[in-house]
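Appendix B, record 7
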Amino acid sequence: MQRDRAELLRALIAYELPIEPVLAELRSFEWDSPNPLVVLTREDIVRILDRYLAGELGAAEVTVWADLIECRDDIGFPGGDEDLLSDALFRLANPNLRGDVTPELGQIIRRELIGTHSGTS
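Structure tokens (predicted):
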């Protein structure tokens, strides 16, 4: 039984492994979406970073995950957190531009996400 698009997007955000079946099912839907169908929260990114820091995910998997999430029209951000979350995803998805995903970077981004808005943009 095929899952609906929002359910698949939630599986993508949670990075259910193996991810390939989720991606295959998502390809059955159009790429564009007039409105976000699900919301990516700080907690979602922190959960991925926690899995990375615990050794459950590798740096390459975190980069793939962030890249899969980064430019989707059907995944939105909570109001007020757009810049913070977009920046975190950009740093994780673009190691060639921003440096490799490392445990140190994971800790930095995690602290930014669980802390207050301390001038991040």
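Remarks on this record: The first strand starts at residue 38 and ends at 39. Strands lie at 38-39, 75-76.
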